[in-house]
Design goal:
The chain has 7 helices and 9 strands. Helix 3 crosses helix 4, helix 3 runs parallel beside helix 5 and helix 5 packs across helix 7. The N and C termini lie far apart (56 Å).
């Protein structure tokens, strides 16, 4: 990446952090995650809960998190963030495996894009994530704002259409791929598809152990679903006529 992943976060940590982790492990059956990021481990459990819900009608796990990355993974999610002692989002939300939703919230003179499901994953692929220093276009002298992104993808009706739109936008930005000096001084040259996959792997949350989902494999699956739905609709119309 042109800028190091998560490099803009403060290096200052709470002095009680280590003791707090030990307390959770020793007194509340906390698990220490190794090999993957802790938030990926959380999403794997959340997705497990969603699959159990599909099979039995009950969730085996509920995700409790303030991480906005959780908004793209099918799960039952509770955001415990509080302002002045009051939950900002007091309701548990069901994130299913549909295209989801995307909308605009106006705060004073500022507009913010909010969403969940595949819409949120597509939004993050296009806009990146300031918290994690994920920058799809920002280091290449390209202008592309929240409202432009919202107008581009909000009218998409299927996940195939949505992620084909994302892919097309990358080709508008980078028809000949990307060339840059990475944060460690290495010269990089990637094709457009390689850059898409790079950003996808940074924003996509793993859903099961050894999840090897790529952008192309995801798009291929959604395209097959759409093609099958169109085929069935065509056959149904023929039978009616």
């Amino acid at each position: 990446m042109p800028k190091e992943y998560k490099s803009e976060r403060s290096e200052i940590k709470p002095i009680q952090l280590s003791d707090t982790k030990d307390y959770l492990v020793e007194n509340h059956n906390g698990d220490v995650v190794t090999g993957i990021e802790a938030d990926d481990a959380l999403e794997i459990l959340g997705y497990t809960g969603f699959k159990n819900y599909q099979e039995t009608g009950k969730f085996s796990h509920v995700v409790v998190s303030i991480d906005k990355d959780s908004l793209s993974t099918p799960s039952l999610l509770f955001n415990f963030y509080k302002e002045d002692g009051v939950y900002k989002n007091p309701y548990i939300i069901l994130i299913d495996d549909s295209i989801g939703d995307l909308w605009i919230v106006e705060k004073s003179k500022k507009k913010e894009v909010k969403g969940w499901g595949s819409f949120w994953l597509a939004y993050q692929m296009l806009m990146g994530d300031k918290t994690d220093t994920i920058r799809p276009y920002q280091d290449f002298d390209i202008k592309f704002g929240d409202m432009t992104c919202f107008n581009l993808i909000s009218e998409c009706k299927t996940q195939a259409e949505l992620f084909n739109t994302v892919k097309a936008q990358y080709y508008v930005w980078f028809p000949d791929g990307v060339n840059f000096t990475s944060w460690d001084g290495t010269e990089k040259s990637l094709t457009t598809d390689e850059w898409i996959e790079t950003i996808f792997q940074l924003v996509y949350m793993k859903r099961w152990e050894n999840d090897e989902t790529t952008f192309e494999s995801m798009l291929t699956a959604y395209q097959a679903e759409q093609d099958e739905a169109l085929r069935q609709a065509h056959e149904s119309n023929q039978e009616e006529n």
